Amino acid sequence: MRIFKTAQEMSVFSRKTRRDGKSIGLVPTMGCLHEGHLSLVKSSLGSSELTVVSIFVNPAQFGKNEDFDKYPRNLEKDIALLKDSGVDVVFAPEAVEMYPEGFLTFVEPQGGLEEVLEGEIRPGHFRGVATVVAKLFNITDPDKAFFGQKDAQQCLIIKKMAQDLNFSVEILIMPTVRETDGLAKSSRNSYLSAKERKAAPAIFKALQMAQHMIELGENNPAAVTAEIRKMIGRAKLLDLEYAVVADPETLRPVESIGSRALALIAARVGTTRLIDNMLIER
Length: 282
Prior knowledge:
Blueprint: E1 2-4, H1 7-19, E2 24-29, H2 35-47, E3 50-55, H3 75-85, E4 89-91, H4 95-98, H5 118-121, H6 125-140, E5 144-148, H7 152-164, E6 170-174, H8 194-199, H9 202-215, H10 221-234, E7 238-246, E8 260-269, E9 272-281
Parallel strand pairs: 1-4, 2-3, 2-5, 3-4, 5-6
Antiparallel strand pairs: 7-8, 8-9
Helix pairs in contact: 6-7, 9-10
């Protein structure tokens, strides 16, 4: 397995791989790898001749008073996991490599997707996400890039960016990987105390309840979100930030639930902020 620290080294290798006629799969991560990341890796290994995993905690997507400084990092362990998984290349740059002195150019999503939900609570977050993913696409030149459904809003924004900026990469959104009790796998789960970890699956249970209501014929999104709020409100240690039943493509709240809807929840479990969602079809 090769490990590259600079964009130039990674780009040279990618170009050579392209000249050799091999396809490239990219799995962008911020490290602290878990089974969710490894499921993306497995998907890439199964459909690409060469798999690149990037490990970069992107400072541009963290706002003031967010958890950039304490975000979990364990590069040595991550590299060992990826080596065991059969990954071909790890791209693990430092911040100064991705944002050198004098860096001025950012990708600014517009059109509404970036303004709602996470974008409203975390101003500038998707500017940082779009910029770093665009850079990763340019540096690694992948045929396919793999992302997790847990970050549904991020996935929609990245797909739109790739389309608008003519990146020749296929964006593949893979199912959320969960713990046995339903909690979505997340690097931030490591922040949870034992009591908080026990309480956190209430988020998934609320999504299941929403799914059940809609599948039984509930068309009123306000009724669904009201029940979510009640359930989260009864759960100890949880503080709901938002609960929305939205259009799966625009993330705008719907007035009436049709054949497809996306239920999204953000909540704090103690001091840890978690997000989750469920695509509901009937």
